Amino acid sequence: MQFHKYDVVVVGAGGAGMRAAIEAGQRSRTAVLTKLYPTRSHTGAAQGGMCAALANVEEDNWEWHTFDTIKGGDYLVDQDAAEVMAKEAIDAVLDLEKMGLPFNRTPEGRIDQRRFGGHTRDHGKAPVRRSCYAADRTGHMILQTLYQNCIKHGVEFFNEFYVLDITMTPGPDGTQHCTGAVAYELATGEIHVFQAKSVIFATGGFGKVFKTTSNAHTLTGDGMGIIYRKGLPLEDMEFYQFHPTGLAGLGILISEAVRGEGGILRNADGERFMERYAPTIKDLAPRDIVARSMAMEVLEGRGAGPNKDHVLLDVTHLGEDVLESKLPDITEFSRTYLGVEPLHEPVPVYPTAHYAMGGVPTNVDAEVLADNENTVPGLYAAGEVACVSVHGSNRLGTNSLLDINVFGRRAGIAAAEYANQHDFLELPEQPAKLVEGMVNHLRTAEGGERVANIRTALQETMDANASVYRTEETLKQALSDVQLLKERYGRIAVHDKGKRYNHDLLEAVELGFLLDLAEALVNSALARKESRGGHAREDYTTRDDTNFMRHSMQYKQLPEEEDPNAPLGLTGFRSDIRLEYKPVTVTRYQPMERKY
C-alpha cells in the first residue's frame, strides 16, 4: 500500500474534473485520479455545443436562458442555481476561447451559435441561436483544451487509478470530514491512499444500467455509488433522460445539433409529427417531449422499418456543405453503423438512455450535502455525478457542457480555498480496510454466477421496465429483478486472479455500483406518482405540483448491527432505503403549464 498527500484530490478527469483541477492547481497542490486516461473521458463524446447568451448571431440574454432552463426542467430546477449557471455561461465560453478552444466562427470572426432544443428568445416565443459549437465535436475539443491547460498549470495526474472509497474522519466540531480517497491502481493491482484536505468528485453518470444507451462502457456510477454507500443522499434519481435521436437498435448518439441545423423527424408516412406535439418549436422541443412523442408514434403504429420500431431523421434537404462542414462525425456515424447515406435517405432513430439529472446533492459552491441543509466538510462534486439542481427533471441540450465548466470551476475554487484555510486531519486507523476487503473477496470468489450474465439481465429489465414510459407494475418488476440480481451478485466468480489490468475484477466492482444505482432509480420512481420531465408514468399522466414539487432525497440505511466498514455487496447488499424530500428553490418563476 502506498500513501500520498495533496491539498486537493480530484476524482475523475472529464470536463468537470479537469476544469476543477485548472482552478485548484493554481491555488494549491492538486492531484487528479482517473479510471481512464484523461482524453478518453466521456466528455469527448459530447457533440452539439455549449450554450451561452453571447448574442453573437441574434438578440439573447442570460435571463431568457435562465427561464428556458427552469421551464425545460419542468420547474423542478433550483432557480438560484439556474441563474448562477446562465449568468456565468458567457465567461465560461470566453474562458475556453482564451484557453485555445477552436470554436466555429461567424464571417465577422465571432464564436458562431446555432439552435438547440428548448432554447428560446423572449420566454418561449421562438427558437434562438445560443449553442456555441466546434462542428459536432464540441466535447472532444473541450476535453483536449482542458487537458492541455491542466498540463500547463502543473496538475499531477494519476491515470488508471480507480477510486473505490473515501475516508471520513471526525473534525474538531464532531462532524464527519472527508479526508482522502482510496484507489486501486489498474496497472499493478496496488492500493493507494491519498490524504487530502478536500476531495472533488467528477466521475460522470451511470448510463450502463440500461442496454440501449449513448454512454460508454465506463459510465458505471462509481462516484455516486461510493458516496451513497457512506450513508449520504442521492437526489432525484428517478429522472433519467432519454435522448431522442440514437441510431435505431444501437443507441449511438445523433446530436441534437442535427435538428438545430434544420433536421426534421418524420414517421413512416413522411409526416413531420412534432408539429402535433410542439407546434411552436416543433423538432426543437426539449428532449423529454421529443422522446415521448417518438415513442408514441411507434406505440400507435406509425413507426418506420420492417418492425415499425423507429422513426426517421430527415436531413436530405440540408445539403452536402452543411452536413460535411457542421455535422461531419454524425454523417459518418450514419454511414458506418447503419449503412445509410444521409445526403439521400433519412436516418433511422429511436430514444437512447443518455443523462442522469439526479446524483450527489450539492449547493451552488459544489459542496456535497449531508442532508437538506448541512454540508460534508471537505467534499465537493461537479458534473453529471452531482445534482445542483440546474437540470431539474429534464436537462436542456448543451446545458451539460455548460454545467461541467461553470460548476467544475466553482468546485475547484471552493475546494482550494477550503484546503488553504484548514489543516490536514488524521486518516482513519485502517483507511483502506473496505477496499482491501472488497478487492480480495472478489479476486478469490468462487461462486457460480458470471458478471456478464447479471449485467445483461440488469440492462434488459431496466430497458423493458424503467425506460421512457413507466407504470407501477413495470417499476415493481424492475425493483424485484434488481434485488434478485443483487442476491446473485453475492455469488459471482472472478476468473482472472491476477493483479495487472484485471478487467474481470474491474467489471465486477463496476457491476456492484450499477446494481445499487438501478435500485435507487427504480425505488424513487415508484414513489413519484406523477409525470414530470424525464419521468413519465402511464398510470399518473399529469404533473402534480401539490404533492411532488419537491426533490427526492434517498439514503442507504446502515443498520446498527452491521459493521459499517464491512465490504459491501459481497455477502448481500444493504437494501434498506430511506426516502425523504427537499423543497425546490423558487425565486422568480412560478410553475406553469409547459407548452412549446
TrEMBL record:
Basic and acidic residues bias locations: 528-548
Cofactor binding comment, as recorded: Flavinylated by SdhE, about 5% flavinylation occurs in the absence of SdhE.
EC number: 1.3.5.1
Positions of FAD binding: 12-17, 34-49, 222, 384, 400-401
Topological category with respect to the lipid bilayer: Peripheral membrane protein
Main location: membrane
Binding-site list for substrate: H243, S255, H354, R395
Biological pathway: Carbohydrate metabolism; tricarboxylic acid cycle; fumarate from succinate (bacterial route): step 1/1
UniProt keyword annotations, A-Z: Electron transport, FAD, Flavoprotein, Membrane, Oxidoreductase, Transport, Tricarboxylic acid cycle
Region feature (Disordered): 528-549
FAD-dependent oxidoreductase 2 FAD-binding domain: residues covered: 7-401
Keyword Flavoprotein: yes
Any GO MF annotation of the entry: steroid dehydrogenase activity, acting on the CH-CH group of donors
Official protein name in the record: Succinate dehydrogenase flavoprotein subunit
